[in-house]
């Protein structure tokens, strides 16, 4: 039975996605192949020209032999149509190395250290250090150097660790390739999945929709193949490719050789068998991009955290000249105030920002991986997850289970007609068979399954392999149809085109209509009637496929899209795809958390609207992508903003909509798993896909879910919000106290005849602050808070965690001024205490008094601005509480300890402490009051 055979084939192939099998690499390497770069050397020894010699325009040097027939090329590469043997592959792997683009290996600890010197804050600090050294202010220069080294060590150490755990996580979702290899010389070829890095030159691979092209390859066979090669050429539309046995004039030196596919591109539609001709550093991609070409678009993380960082850097650069000018104008001082001016700028720097950001995000990511199996591939994406306010979803497999079953097949009048299903099965069978698709589409599987079950009841000829397959144009999401060309038994000299696909697209290619055993012309009225019939079925939640056929005289040449015209419309196959059980609740949770959901689907508007309604998401106005063709930018975002469903979207439509939403200021997430979702995954702030998505989606996504379950997204969102909340809390607290200190320092500098703070004191104080603030990175949310809708006060669960630069700067100005007021009050108190107790009141007492006050106010700010009624740690004592306690103890005891005089401090009189307590009480009350005012509109 053909369909049982088909069942065996489909159950053993393809292997479960994501399964990776490491091969054992044989250590002994025969002499003849162990010379470095063997394959290339062998080619060069035989005088074969390669792209390496041709130096393509883009600088590429793909190492691809040109001007050879397929057979010559295979001979040169010691390969054949049946692929390499395992032994050959292992030898080549040892000789040529893994198929990895060199720049993509993770950097060493030392490289990371040097890299962290390029951080803008570090660079500014270094400049200030150089200025200090230039004017021989060695104390300040040393302080700055210590700060730079401490922050670089912490940062590179943290990044190195985060990088390693991220790499381990990414490994879990790494790409695989379908390779055809043999156990030994006489053994038959077997197709299996291997990690992409294990591919070698001479391997024969299979490509299907959604596969990444894993190396530079030459096509041996191709069926309806189109590839996206935006990463290489910037061309956003898929490019057709075909196998050429003897490319005329060595087509490889053309910018677009049709018979070659390059690493970095991905299959949009169709399938192919191909020969690997270059791997790793020899690929055209490696030559063009020595290092990873990561994200192209600015994400929410760049906009918020980086935005704030750059605003600060501008302030830092402005501070020294302002201080110099103020001192010159008001006190007549000259360049001697430069060290002080530099110290003020240093005081403003949140030098721990990169450390806190990396550590916080890395902890969040590993906790997500542990508890929910969610893999964050790019750390800042976790921040962006927390900031998402619009989430776009595809329908199939997200709202529904993507396990369609055939409900009925109908003729053009809407009556039951098993013959329509049979023709759909002929199409499914022969497109799968001839296009050698690595994985059958769920709709094709459902149709073949349904025919198999009904076969027994049918007359001879029910079996779709009854016809002979001639050619196939597999389904592609742009044309939305699949075509099989078959020869029917007894009809010599004739070919039959069998087409199935989306109703509108098939109907557009039909000129006639089958009804009641005859055929008639298809007029506009009939078209409207058929579209209406389809809409009625779709409104019942069914997925519809239209089926059509055409008879043609037999011919030898290849078939193309232009041949699929003048068809006769046969009828519909209606399939039911059950709703995902948890989708309804998850949609409700997302709405409660302030996330607007948009469904961008390739399916019929009726089917999508019904699925939404059944899940409790009111679809409102249902749009189709062609209604939006003329809109762009803000108008497009506005139109989509009003709707919940946009149907009949192509890959480009999805990407356009996501981009427009982002441009209009929304932090946009996109969840999808198909080839038609890739451009949108890339265009979004956060691209999310399930682990069993097509390879190319998995590679393009920032976040990979264990399964396509909306509940998991909800959890990921919470952890993202908690992490962003921690980063925001760090920024709020650090910057408001730093700003306060800077204002106080400036005033003290103008009021006092001595330096208000010595370089060593600036250093100790900064180090104490930095150490205490590390607690933010380690404030792990309890599992209960991470999973419950009521998250934290710093990251309200019902609001996306977005840092808006302006609101944020307003916030730190208010709290900074409050802090400065406390400092100024302390100066008054110090003067009063000195006066009353007739103490000397010299600089040492002032320094000690201010040091204590600074650390205590910092501790209060950490406690009050971070924690509300509920904290990220719940009510338990967490790292933040410990850090606050330690700061307070150091602040009070250090100036009194033997270290005090070493740092140039001497104990203030006891009265000072009593007065300070009063100042701090007032400050605490003011902080609490202003915080309450801000609670409703947090920056
Ligand atoms: N294998 C196939 N053969 C023929 N037509 C198909 C096939 N698969 C899908 N179609 C048609 O193309 C339409 C669009 O499919 P596409 O894959 O772009 O979107 P989808 O997967 O249905 O929706 P979503 O974007 O929500 O995942 C489907 O509604 C269906 O009519
Ligand atoms: Mg899909």
UniProtKB/TrEMBL annotation:
UniProt-listed SMART domains: Cation_ATPase_N
EC number in record: 7.2.2.14
Gene3D superfamilies per record: Calcium-transporting ATPase, cytoplasmic domain N, Calcium-transporting ATPase, cytoplasmic transduction domain A, Calcium-transporting ATPase, transmembrane domain, HAD superfamily/HAD-like
Residue ranges crossing the lipid bilayer per the database entry: 121-154, 808-834, 846-865, 877-899, 911-930
GO cellular component: plasma membrane
Annotated function: Mediates magnesium influx to the cytosol.
Record protein name field: Magnesium-transporting ATPase, P-type 1
């Amino acid at each position: 039975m053909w369909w049982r055979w088909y069942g065996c084939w489909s159950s053993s192939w393809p292997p479960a996605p994501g399964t990776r099998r490491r091969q054992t690499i044989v250590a002994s390497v025969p002499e003849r192949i162990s010379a470095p770069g063997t394959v290339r050397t062998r080619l060069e020894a035989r005088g074969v020209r390669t792209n390496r010699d041709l130096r393509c325009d883009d600088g590429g040097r793909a190492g691809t032999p040109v001007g050879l027939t397929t057979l010559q090329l295979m001979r040169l590469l010691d390969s054949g149509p049946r692929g390499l043997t395992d032994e050959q592959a292992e030898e080549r792997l040892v000789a040529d190395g893994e198929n990895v683009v060199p720049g993509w290996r993770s950097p060493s600890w030392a490289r990371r250290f040097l890299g962290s010197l390029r951080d803008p804050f570090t660079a500014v600090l270094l400049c200030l250090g150089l200025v200090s050294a230039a004017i021989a202010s060695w104390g300040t220069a040393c302080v700055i150097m210590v700060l730079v080294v401490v922050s670089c060590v912490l940062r590179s150490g943290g990044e190195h660790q985060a990088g390693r755990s991220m790499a381990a996580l990414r490994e879990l979702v790494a790409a695989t390739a379908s390779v055809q290899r043999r156990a030994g010389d006489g053994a038959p070829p077997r197709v299996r999945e291997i990690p992409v890095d294990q591919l070698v030159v001479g391997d024969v691979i299979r490509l299907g929709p959604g596969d990444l092209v894993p190396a530079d390859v030459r096509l041996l066979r191709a069926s309806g193949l189109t590839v996206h090669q935006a990463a290489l050429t910037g061309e956003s539309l898929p490019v057709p490719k075909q196998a050429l046995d003897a490319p005329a004039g060595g087509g490889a030196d053309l910018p677009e050789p049709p018979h070659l596919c390059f690493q970095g591109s991905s299959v949009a539609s169709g399938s192919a068998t191909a020969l690997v001709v270059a791997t790793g550093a020899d690929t055209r991609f490696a030559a063009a991009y020595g290092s990873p070409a990561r994200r192209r678009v600015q994400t929410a993380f760049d906009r918020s955290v980086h935005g704030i960082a750059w605003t600060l850097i501008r302030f830092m650069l402005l501070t020294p000249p302002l201080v110099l000018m103020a001192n010159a104008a008001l006190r007549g001082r000259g360049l001697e105030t430069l060290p002080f001016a530099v110290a003020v700028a240093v005081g403003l720097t949140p030098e721990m920002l990169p450390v806190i950001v990396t550590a916080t995000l890395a902890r969040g990511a590993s906790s997500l991986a542990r508890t929910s199996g969610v893999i964050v591939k790019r750390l800042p994406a976790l921040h962006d997850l927390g900031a998402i306010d619009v989430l776009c979803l595809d329908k199939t497999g997200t709202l529904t289970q993507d396990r369609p079953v055939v409900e009925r097949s109908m003729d053009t009048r809407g009556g039951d007609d098993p013959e329509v299903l049979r023709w759909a099965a002929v199409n499914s069978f022969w497109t799968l068979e001839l296009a050698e698709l690595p994985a059958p589409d769920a709709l094709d599987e459902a149709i073949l399954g349904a025919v198999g079950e009904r076969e027994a009841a049918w007359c001879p000829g029910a079996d779709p392999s009854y016809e002979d397959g001639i050619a196939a144009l597999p389904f592609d999401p742009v044309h939305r149809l699949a075509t099989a060309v078959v020869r029917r038994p007894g009809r010599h000299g004739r070919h039959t085109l069998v087409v199935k696909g989306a109703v509108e697209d098939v109907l557009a290619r039909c000129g006639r209509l089958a009804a009641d055993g005859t055929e008639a012309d298809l007029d506009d009225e009939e078209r409207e009637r058929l579209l209406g019939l389809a809409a009625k079925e779709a409104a019942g939640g069914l997925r519809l496929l239209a089926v059509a056929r055409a008879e043609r005289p037999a011919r030898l040449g290849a078939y193309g899209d232009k041949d699929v015209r003048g068809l006769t419309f046969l009828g519909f196959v209606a399939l039911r795809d059950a709703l995902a059980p948890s989708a309804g609740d998850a949609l409700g949770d997302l709405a409660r958390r302030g996330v607007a959901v948009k469904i961008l689907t390739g399916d019929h508007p009726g089917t999508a609207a019904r699925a939404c309604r059944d899940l409790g998401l009111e679809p409102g106005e249902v749009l189709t992508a062609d209604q939006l063709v003329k809109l762009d930018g803000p108008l497009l975002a506005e139109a989509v903003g009003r709707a919940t469903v946009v149907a009949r979207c192509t890959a480009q439509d999805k990407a356009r909509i996501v981009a427009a939403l982002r441009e209009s200021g929304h932090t946009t997430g996109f969840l999808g798993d198909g080839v038609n979702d890739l451009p949108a995954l890339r265009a979004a702030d956060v691209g999310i896909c399930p682990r069993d998505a097509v390879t190319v989606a998995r590679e393009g996504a920032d976040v990979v879910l264990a399964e396509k379950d909306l509940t998991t997204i909800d959890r990921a969102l919470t952890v993202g919000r908690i992490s962003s909340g921690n980063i925001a809390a760090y920024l709020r607290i650090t910057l408001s106290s730093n700003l306060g200190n800077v204002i106080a320092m400036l005033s003290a500098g103008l009021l006092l005849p001595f330096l208000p703070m010595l370089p060593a004191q600036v250093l100790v104080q900064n180090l104490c602050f930095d150490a205490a603030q590390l607690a933010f990175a380690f404030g792990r949310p309890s599992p209960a808070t991470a999973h419950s809708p009521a998250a934290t006060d710093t990251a309200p669960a019902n609001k996306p965690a977005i840092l808006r630069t302006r609101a944020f700067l307003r916030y730190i100005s208010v709290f900074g001024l409050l802090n400065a007021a406390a400092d100024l009050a302390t100066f008054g108190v110090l003067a009063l205490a000195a006066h009353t107790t007739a103490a000397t009141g010299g600089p040492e007492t002032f320094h000690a008094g201010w040091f204590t006050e600074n650390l205590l106010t910092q501790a209060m700010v950490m406690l009050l601005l971070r924690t509300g009624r509920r904290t990220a740690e719940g009510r338990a004592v967490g790292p933040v509480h410990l850090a606050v306690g330690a700061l307070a103890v150091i602040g009070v005891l250090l100036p009194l300890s033997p270290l005090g005089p070493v740092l140039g401090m001497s104990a203030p009189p006891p009265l000072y402490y009593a007065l300070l307590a009063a100042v701090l009480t007032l400050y605490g009350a003011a902080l609490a009051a202003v915080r309450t005012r801000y609670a409703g509109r947090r920056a």
